[in-house]
Design a protein that fits this description.
binds heme C, 340 residues, Cyt_c-like_dom_sf, mainly alpha, elongated
Length: 340
Protein backbone atom coordinates (compact mmCIF):
# COMPACT_ATOMS: atom_id res chain seq x y z
CA UNK A 1 0.00 0.00 0.00
CA UNK A 2 2.87 2.35 0.82
CA UNK A 3 4.41 1.65 -2.56
CA UNK A 4 1.09 2.27 -4.31
CA UNK A 5 0.64 5.57 -2.43
CA UNK A 6 4.12 6.65 -3.46
CA UNK A 7 3.54 5.71 -7.09
CA UNK A 8 0.12 7.37 -7.47
CA UNK A 9 1.44 10.93 -8.00
CA UNK A 10 4.04 9.63 -10.45
CA UNK A 11 1.34 7.78 -12.37
CA UNK A 12 -0.75 10.97 -12.39
CA UNK A 13 2.16 12.99 -13.80
CA UNK A 14 2.81 10.28 -16.37
CA UNK A 15 -0.76 10.35 -17.61
CA UNK A 16 -0.67 14.15 -17.89
CA UNK A 17 2.72 13.98 -19.67
CA UNK A 18 1.51 11.41 -22.18
CA UNK A 19 -1.08 13.97 -23.29
CA UNK A 20 -4.04 11.63 -23.23
CA UNK A 21 -6.21 13.93 -21.11
CA UNK A 22 -8.55 15.76 -23.48
CA UNK A 23 -8.44 19.52 -22.83
CA UNK A 24 -10.47 20.58 -25.88
CA UNK A 25 -13.79 22.35 -25.42
CA UNK A 26 -15.58 20.02 -27.85
CA UNK A 27 -18.02 17.42 -26.59
CA UNK A 28 -18.63 19.09 -23.23
CA UNK A 29 -18.15 17.51 -19.80
CA UNK A 30 -19.57 14.22 -18.63
CA UNK A 31 -22.90 14.85 -16.92
CA UNK A 32 -21.40 14.01 -13.54
CA UNK A 33 -18.41 16.36 -14.04
CA UNK A 34 -20.77 19.09 -15.14
CA UNK A 35 -22.93 18.60 -12.07
CA UNK A 36 -19.91 18.52 -9.77
CA UNK A 37 -18.35 21.70 -11.24
CA UNK A 38 -21.58 23.66 -10.95
CA UNK A 39 -22.26 22.39 -7.48
CA UNK A 40 -18.74 23.44 -6.40
CA UNK A 41 -19.17 26.84 -8.04
CA UNK A 42 -22.52 27.50 -6.38
CA UNK A 43 -21.21 26.44 -2.97
CA UNK A 44 -18.12 28.60 -3.30
CA UNK A 45 -20.10 31.66 -4.37
CA UNK A 46 -22.63 31.11 -1.59
CA UNK A 47 -19.90 30.94 1.06
CA UNK A 48 -18.01 33.95 -0.32
CA UNK A 49 -21.27 35.95 -0.28
CA UNK A 50 -21.83 35.36 3.43
CA UNK A 51 -19.47 38.18 4.42
CA UNK A 52 -20.84 40.70 1.91
CA UNK A 53 -22.99 43.59 3.07
CA UNK A 54 -25.33 45.23 0.59
CA UNK A 55 -25.07 49.04 0.57
CA UNK A 56 -28.40 50.66 1.39
CA UNK A 57 -30.48 51.82 -1.53
CA UNK A 58 -28.41 50.04 -4.17
CA UNK A 59 -31.54 48.59 -5.79
CA UNK A 60 -32.62 51.94 -7.15
CA UNK A 61 -30.25 51.43 -10.12
CA UNK A 62 -29.19 55.05 -10.42
CA UNK A 63 -26.38 54.37 -12.85
CA UNK A 64 -28.16 52.65 -15.69
CA UNK A 65 -26.49 54.70 -18.38
CA UNK A 66 -22.85 54.05 -17.49
CA UNK A 67 -23.48 50.42 -16.58
CA UNK A 68 -25.40 49.75 -19.80
CA UNK A 69 -22.57 51.22 -21.90
CA UNK A 70 -20.08 49.13 -19.95
CA UNK A 71 -22.21 45.99 -20.37
CA UNK A 72 -22.32 46.61 -24.09
CA UNK A 73 -18.53 47.08 -24.28
CA UNK A 74 -17.43 44.35 -21.86
CA UNK A 75 -20.11 41.72 -21.24
CA UNK A 76 -22.46 41.52 -24.24
CA UNK A 77 -19.79 39.93 -26.43
CA UNK A 78 -20.00 36.80 -24.27
CA UNK A 79 -23.42 36.95 -22.62
CA UNK A 80 -25.46 38.54 -25.38
CA UNK A 81 -27.91 41.39 -24.62
CA UNK A 82 -31.55 42.26 -25.31
CA UNK A 83 -30.23 43.68 -28.56
CA UNK A 84 -27.93 40.85 -29.65
CA UNK A 85 -27.80 37.07 -29.51
CA UNK A 86 -24.75 35.19 -28.28
CA UNK A 87 -22.41 34.37 -31.15
CA UNK A 88 -21.65 30.76 -32.13
CA UNK A 89 -18.03 31.07 -30.90
CA UNK A 90 -19.22 32.09 -27.45
CA UNK A 91 -21.76 29.27 -27.36
CA UNK A 92 -18.84 26.93 -28.13
CA UNK A 93 -17.01 27.94 -24.93
CA UNK A 94 -16.91 25.41 -22.11
CA UNK A 95 -18.92 26.29 -20.11
CA UNK A 96 -20.85 28.60 -22.47
CA UNK A 97 -21.62 32.03 -20.95
CA UNK A 98 -25.35 32.00 -20.15
CA UNK A 99 -27.87 34.57 -21.34
CA UNK A 100 -27.95 36.53 -18.09
CA UNK A 101 -31.62 37.43 -18.44
CA UNK A 102 -32.40 33.78 -17.77
CA UNK A 103 -29.97 33.19 -14.89
CA UNK A 104 -29.71 36.39 -12.85
CA UNK A 105 -32.87 35.44 -10.95
CA UNK A 106 -31.15 32.27 -9.63
CA UNK A 107 -28.75 34.29 -7.51
CA UNK A 108 -29.00 36.50 -4.45
CA UNK A 109 -27.71 40.07 -4.85
CA UNK A 110 -24.65 39.34 -2.69
CA UNK A 111 -23.85 36.30 -4.83
CA UNK A 112 -24.07 38.31 -8.04
CA UNK A 113 -21.74 40.81 -6.41
CA UNK A 114 -19.17 38.08 -5.68
CA UNK A 115 -19.37 36.71 -9.24
CA UNK A 116 -18.99 40.12 -10.90
CA UNK A 117 -16.20 41.24 -8.56
CA UNK A 118 -14.13 38.04 -8.49
CA UNK A 119 -15.01 36.33 -11.77
CA UNK A 120 -15.23 32.53 -12.06
CA UNK A 121 -12.04 30.54 -12.26
CA UNK A 122 -11.69 28.03 -15.16
CA UNK A 123 -14.72 29.41 -17.00
CA UNK A 124 -13.49 32.53 -18.81
CA UNK A 125 -15.67 34.81 -16.67
CA UNK A 126 -13.34 37.75 -15.83
CA UNK A 127 -12.95 39.54 -12.48
CA UNK A 128 -13.77 43.27 -12.18
CA UNK A 129 -10.79 45.23 -13.52
CA UNK A 130 -10.99 48.14 -11.03
CA UNK A 131 -9.60 46.60 -7.84
CA UNK A 132 -11.26 47.91 -4.67
CA UNK A 133 -14.16 49.59 -6.52
CA UNK A 134 -17.03 47.77 -4.83
CA UNK A 135 -19.26 50.75 -5.60
CA UNK A 136 -18.84 50.06 -9.32
CA UNK A 137 -19.54 46.35 -8.88
CA UNK A 138 -22.77 47.11 -6.99
CA UNK A 139 -23.81 49.45 -9.79
CA UNK A 140 -23.33 46.55 -12.24
CA UNK A 141 -25.38 44.21 -10.05
CA UNK A 142 -28.22 46.75 -9.97
CA UNK A 143 -28.01 46.89 -13.75
CA UNK A 144 -28.15 43.08 -14.11
CA UNK A 145 -31.37 43.04 -12.13
CA UNK A 146 -32.91 45.62 -14.45
CA UNK A 147 -31.61 43.71 -17.45
CA UNK A 148 -33.92 40.79 -16.74
CA UNK A 149 -36.95 42.73 -17.96
CA UNK A 150 -35.33 45.32 -20.20
CA UNK A 151 -36.77 45.74 -23.70
CA UNK A 152 -34.40 45.84 -26.68
CA UNK A 153 -35.40 49.44 -27.38
CA UNK A 154 -34.64 50.58 -23.84
CA UNK A 155 -31.34 48.71 -23.84
CA UNK A 156 -30.33 50.31 -27.13
CA UNK A 157 -31.17 53.76 -25.85
CA UNK A 158 -29.22 53.29 -22.59
CA UNK A 159 -26.18 51.52 -23.97
CA UNK A 160 -25.79 54.09 -26.72
CA UNK A 161 -25.05 51.29 -29.18
CA UNK A 162 -24.75 53.74 -32.03
CA UNK A 163 -22.21 55.88 -30.14
CA UNK A 164 -20.03 53.05 -28.93
CA UNK A 165 -20.08 51.07 -32.14
CA UNK A 166 -19.58 53.94 -34.56
CA UNK A 167 -15.85 53.44 -33.90
CA UNK A 168 -15.47 57.16 -33.27
CA UNK A 169 -13.53 57.64 -30.04
CA UNK A 170 -15.16 60.89 -29.00
CA UNK A 171 -18.76 59.80 -29.41
CA UNK A 172 -17.82 56.68 -27.43
CA UNK A 173 -16.80 58.98 -24.55
CA UNK A 174 -20.02 60.94 -24.80
CA UNK A 175 -22.08 57.79 -24.30
CA UNK A 176 -21.15 58.14 -20.61
CA UNK A 177 -19.80 61.69 -20.29
CA UNK A 178 -22.63 63.51 -21.95
CA UNK A 179 -22.87 67.22 -21.30
CA UNK A 180 -25.10 68.87 -18.77
CA UNK A 181 -26.20 67.69 -15.39
CA UNK A 182 -29.52 66.30 -16.63
CA UNK A 183 -27.97 64.07 -19.26
CA UNK A 184 -25.08 63.02 -17.07
CA UNK A 185 -24.98 59.80 -15.14
CA UNK A 186 -23.94 60.87 -11.65
CA UNK A 187 -20.98 58.49 -11.39
CA UNK A 188 -19.41 59.67 -14.61
CA UNK A 189 -17.86 63.11 -14.06
CA UNK A 190 -18.24 66.06 -16.39
CA UNK A 191 -14.92 66.10 -18.23
CA UNK A 192 -15.48 68.97 -20.65
CA UNK A 193 -13.84 72.07 -19.24
CA UNK A 194 -11.15 70.36 -17.14
CA UNK A 195 -7.58 71.24 -18.11
CA UNK A 196 -5.79 69.33 -20.82
CA UNK A 197 -3.01 68.39 -18.37
CA UNK A 198 -5.42 66.96 -15.78
CA UNK A 199 -7.46 64.96 -18.30
CA UNK A 200 -4.38 63.43 -19.95
CA UNK A 201 -2.91 62.62 -16.54
CA UNK A 202 -6.14 60.94 -15.41
CA UNK A 203 -6.35 58.83 -18.58
CA UNK A 204 -2.72 57.71 -18.18
CA UNK A 205 -3.35 56.85 -14.54
CA UNK A 206 -6.26 54.57 -15.52
CA UNK A 207 -4.08 52.97 -18.16
CA UNK A 208 -1.22 52.31 -15.75
CA UNK A 209 -3.70 50.97 -13.22
CA UNK A 210 -2.57 53.56 -10.67
CA UNK A 211 -6.14 54.90 -10.63
CA UNK A 212 -8.72 52.13 -10.35
CA UNK A 213 -12.02 52.13 -12.19
CA UNK A 214 -13.33 49.09 -14.06
CA UNK A 215 -15.38 51.38 -16.30
CA UNK A 216 -12.50 53.60 -17.37
CA UNK A 217 -9.81 50.92 -17.50
CA UNK A 218 -11.75 49.12 -20.21
CA UNK A 219 -12.14 52.39 -22.12
CA UNK A 220 -8.48 53.46 -21.99
CA UNK A 221 -7.20 50.02 -22.92
CA UNK A 222 -8.57 50.83 -26.36
CA UNK A 223 -6.84 54.22 -26.68
CA UNK A 224 -3.45 54.83 -28.27
CA UNK A 225 -1.11 57.49 -26.86
CA UNK A 226 -2.11 59.89 -29.59
CA UNK A 227 -5.81 59.28 -28.78
CA UNK A 228 -5.19 60.22 -25.15
CA UNK A 229 -3.70 63.55 -26.10
CA UNK A 230 -6.32 64.19 -28.75
CA UNK A 231 -9.33 63.39 -26.53
CA UNK A 232 -7.88 65.33 -23.58
CA UNK A 233 -7.32 68.31 -25.85
CA UNK A 234 -10.80 68.03 -27.28
CA UNK A 235 -12.60 67.99 -23.93
CA UNK A 236 -10.36 70.68 -22.44
CA UNK A 237 -11.46 73.10 -25.16
CA UNK A 238 -15.17 72.63 -24.38
CA UNK A 239 -16.87 74.33 -21.51
CA UNK A 240 -19.04 71.69 -19.90
CA UNK A 241 -18.30 72.55 -16.32
CA UNK A 242 -18.63 76.22 -17.06
CA UNK A 243 -22.15 75.96 -18.41
CA UNK A 244 -23.50 73.38 -15.96
CA UNK A 245 -25.55 73.88 -12.79
CA UNK A 246 -27.59 77.01 -12.60
CA UNK A 247 -28.71 76.45 -9.00
CA UNK A 248 -25.96 78.08 -6.92
CA UNK A 249 -26.40 77.71 -3.19
CA UNK A 250 -24.10 79.12 -0.57
CA UNK A 251 -22.95 76.66 2.03
CA UNK A 252 -23.46 76.89 5.79
CA UNK A 253 -20.74 78.33 8.00
CA UNK A 254 -18.86 75.07 8.52
CA UNK A 255 -18.81 74.31 4.78
CA UNK A 256 -17.58 77.75 3.81
CA UNK A 257 -14.82 77.67 6.39
CA UNK A 258 -13.67 74.25 5.16
CA UNK A 259 -13.64 75.52 1.60
CA UNK A 260 -11.90 78.80 2.31
CA UNK A 261 -9.67 78.24 5.33
CA UNK A 262 -9.81 74.54 6.12
CA UNK A 263 -9.67 73.31 9.70
CA UNK A 264 -6.12 73.73 11.05
CA UNK A 265 -6.96 72.00 14.33
CA UNK A 266 -8.05 68.84 12.53
CA UNK A 267 -5.33 69.23 9.87
CA UNK A 268 -7.77 69.69 7.00
CA UNK A 269 -6.49 71.90 4.20
CA UNK A 270 -8.66 74.55 2.54
CA UNK A 271 -10.13 73.11 -0.65
CA UNK A 272 -9.94 76.47 -2.35
CA UNK A 273 -6.17 76.64 -1.78
CA UNK A 274 -5.82 74.14 -4.60
CA UNK A 275 -9.11 73.68 -6.42
CA UNK A 276 -10.88 75.81 -8.97
CA UNK A 277 -7.75 77.92 -9.24
CA UNK A 278 -4.94 78.13 -11.73
CA UNK A 279 -2.88 74.94 -11.31
CA UNK A 280 -3.84 72.82 -14.30
CA UNK A 281 -3.18 69.57 -12.41
CA UNK A 282 -5.76 70.37 -9.74
CA UNK A 283 -9.20 69.48 -11.08
CA UNK A 284 -12.18 71.81 -11.10
CA UNK A 285 -14.86 70.65 -8.69
CA UNK A 286 -17.74 73.08 -9.13
CA UNK A 287 -20.60 71.60 -11.09
CA UNK A 288 -19.62 67.92 -10.65
CA UNK A 289 -22.33 65.59 -9.36
CA UNK A 290 -22.68 65.01 -5.64
CA UNK A 291 -22.38 61.23 -6.07
CA UNK A 292 -19.10 61.51 -7.96
CA UNK A 293 -17.59 64.02 -5.51
CA UNK A 294 -18.44 61.92 -2.46
CA UNK A 295 -17.08 58.72 -3.95
CA UNK A 296 -13.80 60.35 -5.00
CA UNK A 297 -13.20 62.05 -1.64
CA UNK A 298 -13.85 58.74 0.14
CA UNK A 299 -11.35 57.02 -2.17
CA UNK A 300 -8.72 59.65 -1.34
CA UNK A 301 -9.44 59.36 2.38
CA UNK A 302 -8.76 55.62 2.23
CA UNK A 303 -5.67 56.07 0.01
CA UNK A 304 -7.45 54.18 -2.75
CA UNK A 305 -7.18 56.77 -5.48
CA UNK A 306 -3.74 56.18 -6.85
CA UNK A 307 -0.25 56.78 -5.60
CA UNK A 308 0.86 59.74 -7.71
CA UNK A 309 2.43 62.72 -5.88
CA UNK A 310 -0.73 64.75 -6.56
CA UNK A 311 -2.99 62.00 -5.22
CA UNK A 312 -0.92 61.81 -2.03
CA UNK A 313 -1.19 65.58 -1.64
CA UNK A 314 -4.95 65.38 -1.91
CA UNK A 315 -5.22 62.36 0.40
CA UNK A 316 -3.38 64.29 3.11
CA UNK A 317 -5.66 67.30 2.64
CA UNK A 318 -8.86 65.33 3.25
CA UNK A 319 -7.74 62.47 5.52
CA UNK A 320 -9.43 63.91 8.62
CA UNK A 321 -12.75 64.97 7.10
CA UNK A 322 -15.75 63.31 8.75
CA UNK A 323 -18.38 61.62 6.61
CA UNK A 324 -20.77 64.52 7.36
CA UNK A 325 -18.17 67.03 6.19
CA UNK A 326 -17.64 65.06 3.00
CA UNK A 327 -21.38 65.17 2.26
CA UNK A 328 -21.47 68.91 3.04
CA UNK A 329 -18.59 69.71 0.72
CA UNK A 330 -20.02 67.55 -2.05
CA UNK A 331 -23.39 69.32 -1.74
CA UNK A 332 -21.65 72.65 -1.87
CA UNK A 333 -19.49 71.99 -4.92
CA UNK A 334 -22.30 70.22 -6.77
CA UNK A 335 -24.37 73.39 -6.47
CA UNK A 336 -21.70 75.87 -7.55
CA UNK A 337 -21.51 77.33 -11.02
CA UNK A 338 -17.90 77.75 -12.01
CA UNK A 339 -16.14 81.06 -12.29
CA UNK A 340 -13.33 80.52 -14.74
C1 LIG B 1 -15.04 36.03 -21.97
C2 LIG B 1 -16.44 35.83 -21.81
C3 LIG B 1 -17.14 36.54 -20.66
C4 LIG B 1 -17.19 37.88 -20.41
C5 LIG B 1 -16.49 39.01 -21.15
C6 LIG B 1 -18.06 38.05 -19.27
N1 LIG B 1 -18.52 36.83 -18.84
FE1 LIG B 1 -19.81 36.46 -17.29
N2 LIG B 1 -19.59 34.49 -17.55
C7 LIG B 1 -18.84 33.88 -18.53
C8 LIG B 1 -18.85 32.44 -18.32
C9 LIG B 1 -18.15 31.43 -19.19
C10 LIG B 1 -19.63 32.21 -17.17
C11 LIG B 1 -19.82 30.89 -16.43
C12 LIG B 1 -21.00 30.11 -16.80
C13 LIG B 1 -21.11 28.87 -15.96
O1 LIG B 1 -20.37 28.68 -14.98
O2 LIG B 1 -21.96 28.09 -16.32
C14 LIG B 1 -20.10 33.52 -16.73
C15 LIG B 1 -20.95 33.71 -15.64
C16 LIG B 1 -21.47 34.93 -15.27
C17 LIG B 1 -22.48 35.10 -14.26
C18 LIG B 1 -23.15 33.98 -13.45
C19 LIG B 1 -24.33 33.54 -14.25
C20 LIG B 1 -24.74 32.12 -14.01
O3 LIG B 1 -25.90 31.91 -13.69
O4 LIG B 1 -23.87 31.22 -14.15
C21 LIG B 1 -22.73 36.45 -14.17
C22 LIG B 1 -23.72 37.16 -13.25
C23 LIG B 1 -21.86 37.11 -15.14
N3 LIG B 1 -21.14 36.15 -15.79
C24 LIG B 1 -21.84 38.49 -15.36
C25 LIG B 1 -20.96 39.11 -16.24
C26 LIG B 1 -20.83 40.54 -16.38
C27 LIG B 1 -21.63 41.58 -15.61
C28 LIG B 1 -19.85 40.75 -17.31
C29 LIG B 1 -19.29 42.08 -17.80
C30 LIG B 1 -18.73 42.94 -16.78
C31 LIG B 1 -19.39 39.46 -17.76
N4 LIG B 1 -20.07 38.50 -17.09
C32 LIG B 1 -18.40 39.27 -18.72
C33 LIG B 1 -18.17 34.51 -19.55
C34 LIG B 1 -17.97 35.89 -19.66
C1 LIG C 1 -18.76 53.20 -19.67
C2 LIG C 1 -18.89 54.61 -19.42
C3 LIG C 1 -17.69 55.49 -19.76
C4 LIG C 1 -17.13 55.71 -20.99
C5 LIG C 1 -17.52 55.09 -22.33
C6 LIG C 1 -16.08 56.68 -20.78
N1 LIG C 1 -16.01 57.04 -19.46
FE1 LIG C 1 -14.66 58.28 -18.61
N2 LIG C 1 -15.43 57.88 -16.76
C7 LIG C 1 -16.48 57.03 -16.49
C8 LIG C 1 -16.66 56.91 -15.06
C9 LIG C 1 -17.72 56.07 -14.36
C10 LIG C 1 -15.66 57.72 -14.46
C11 LIG C 1 -15.35 57.90 -12.96
C12 LIG C 1 -14.31 56.86 -12.65
C13 LIG C 1 -13.69 56.94 -11.27
O1 LIG C 1 -14.42 56.79 -10.30
O2 LIG C 1 -12.46 57.13 -11.19
C14 LIG C 1 -14.90 58.31 -15.56
C15 LIG C 1 -13.82 59.17 -15.38
C16 LIG C 1 -13.14 59.78 -16.41
C17 LIG C 1 -12.05 60.75 -16.23
C18 LIG C 1 -11.53 61.30 -14.90
C19 LIG C 1 -12.16 62.64 -14.68
C20 LIG C 1 -11.96 63.24 -13.32
O3 LIG C 1 -12.47 64.34 -13.09
O4 LIG C 1 -11.32 62.64 -12.46
C21 LIG C 1 -11.63 61.11 -17.48
C22 LIG C 1 -10.54 62.11 -17.84
C23 LIG C 1 -12.44 60.39 -18.45
N3 LIG C 1 -13.33 59.58 -17.76
C24 LIG C 1 -12.32 60.50 -19.82
C25 LIG C 1 -12.99 59.70 -20.74
C26 LIG C 1 -12.73 59.70 -22.16
C27 LIG C 1 -11.73 60.63 -22.87
C28 LIG C 1 -13.53 58.76 -22.73
C29 LIG C 1 -13.60 58.33 -24.19
C30 LIG C 1 -12.38 57.86 -24.77
C31 LIG C 1 -14.32 58.18 -21.64
N4 LIG C 1 -13.95 58.76 -20.47
C32 LIG C 1 -15.28 57.18 -21.80
C33 LIG C 1 -17.27 56.40 -17.44
C34 LIG C 1 -16.98 56.32 -18.80
C1 LIG D 1 -2.93 70.58 -1.60
C2 LIG D 1 -3.84 70.74 -2.67
C3 LIG D 1 -5.26 70.21 -2.46
C4 LIG D 1 -6.14 70.52 -1.44
C5 LIG D 1 -5.92 71.41 -0.25
C6 LIG D 1 -7.38 69.81 -1.76
N1 LIG D 1 -7.23 69.11 -2.93
FE1 LIG D 1 -8.64 67.95 -3.83
N2 LIG D 1 -7.30 67.42 -5.27
C7 LIG D 1 -6.01 67.88 -5.37
C8 LIG D 1 -5.34 67.23 -6.49
C9 LIG D 1 -3.92 67.47 -6.94
C10 LIG D 1 -6.30 66.34 -7.08
C11 LIG D 1 -6.08 65.41 -8.26
C12 LIG D 1 -5.30 64.23 -7.75
C13 LIG D 1 -5.01 63.17 -8.76
O1 LIG D 1 -5.91 62.82 -9.54
O2 LIG D 1 -3.88 62.67 -8.77
C14 LIG D 1 -7.52 66.51 -6.30
C15 LIG D 1 -8.71 65.83 -6.56
C16 LIG D 1 -9.90 66.05 -5.89
C17 LIG D 1 -11.18 65.45 -6.25
C18 LIG D 1 -11.44 64.53 -7.43
C19 LIG D 1 -11.94 65.37 -8.57
C20 LIG D 1 -11.98 64.67 -9.90
O3 LIG D 1 -12.45 65.30 -10.86
O4 LIG D 1 -11.56 63.53 -10.01
C21 LIG D 1 -12.10 65.90 -5.34
C22 LIG D 1 -13.57 65.55 -5.31
C23 LIG D 1 -11.41 66.78 -4.41
N3 LIG D 1 -10.08 66.86 -4.77
C24 LIG D 1 -12.01 67.45 -3.34
C25 LIG D 1 -11.34 68.25 -2.42
C26 LIG D 1 -11.97 68.88 -1.27
C27 LIG D 1 -13.46 68.78 -0.93
C28 LIG D 1 -11.01 69.56 -0.60
C29 LIG D 1 -11.12 70.36 0.68
C30 LIG D 1 -11.48 69.65 1.87
C31 LIG D 1 -9.75 69.34 -1.34
N4 LIG D 1 -10.00 68.57 -2.43
C32 LIG D 1 -8.53 69.89 -0.98
C33 LIG D 1 -5.41 68.80 -4.54
C34 LIG D 1 -5.96 69.31 -3.37
Amino acid sequence: MAAAAALAPVAGLLIAWLGIIHVGATGGHWAVTEWFLHWTMRSSVRTAALGIKKPSGFESAKHLKVTAVHFQMSCAECHGSPDRRRSPEMLAMLPPPPDLRDTVGNWKDEELFVIVRDGLRYTGMPAWPGAGRDDEVWAMVAFLKELQTMSPARYKELSGAKDTESGDTLSGCLACHEQGIEGNDPIAPVIAGQSNAYLAEALRAYRKGSRESGFMEVVVSRLKDADIDATAGHFARKDGLLSATPRARSGDERTLSLVQTGDPVKKIAACQACHDGRNPLYPLLSGQSRTFLIEQILLFKQDLRGDSPTARLMSRAVRHLTVEDVARLADYYASQPLAR
